[in-house]
Every structure is written in C-alpha cells, then in structure tokens.
What we know:
By secondary structure, the protein is mainly alpha-helical. It is built from six helices and no strands.
Amino acid sequence: xxxxxxxxxxxxxxxxxxxxxxxxxxxxxxxxxxxxxxxxxxxxxxxxxxxxxxxxxxxxxxxxxxxxxxxxxxxxxxxxxxxxxxxxxxxxxxxxxxxxxxxxxxxxxxxxxxxxxxxxxxxxxxxxxxxxxxxxxxxxxxxxxxxxxxxxxxxxxxxxxx
Length: 162
C-alpha cells in the first residue's frame, strides 16, 4: 500500500498547493525511499507475490483508504450532509446489489430455492460491505475526475492568460 499512497499523496499535494520550498523538496527522497523499503520487506503473506501483485493489492485497497479518510474527516469536522449522503448512497447500492443477487439466483436455475428453503439473513452485513466498497469506488472516481477537471481548467486559464 505504501507503493501508491505516500508518493501519490505527496505528488497530489505538491501540484495542488504548488509548494516548492526547500523543506518540501528535501522530503522527496524520504517519500521515494518508503515504497522501496516496503518492497524490500519480507512479509510472510507476500513471499510469493511479485511487484504486479503488490501493486494490484494497493490499487484494490485504495477506495477503502480514501473513503475511510473522508469519513473520518467528515466526522471530525461535523460535516453531516456529505456523511449522510455517503451512507444513503451506500445503503441504496447495498439494496440494489441484494436485489440483483436474489434476481440472478432465482433465474440462474428454476429450482434455485426448493420448497421449504429460505434465504438466511445471517450474512446481511456482508452485502452492506459490498455496497460500502462500491460507494468508496464511486467516491474515489469522483475525486479523481474532479482533480483532473481542476487541473485541466487551471491549465486552460494559464493558456488563455498568455
């Protein structure tokens, strides 16, 4: 996860704030060294994993990290509207995923549920996790699109000034 997050946050913050002080630039070797150290760590889980597997793992966990940071920030700053909007969208997506799962199960085979069988509600929270993860993917995509739009807009303004 260090392969993506630390250098990505450093570069994003550098380009957004355009902060090029000596102190900020002296931080760059440390930021570059952290992912290299993470690659050299011999974790038991990642013994057989290659670089692509590690990068894929980092990319898959990115939406969860982004959503966690935003949810924590919204809680600390008491920004209730985005928090409740995120929770509402997450619940709606969870309900849609649950109905899609039931629909696919019913139509996959005509005898998916035999007489006397029923859907167990023991794992209801699991579909909520899927909904929250999908909402986190949407939030991450929204942040990336808005950052790209902002960069394009600022570049267009600089071109028109000259």
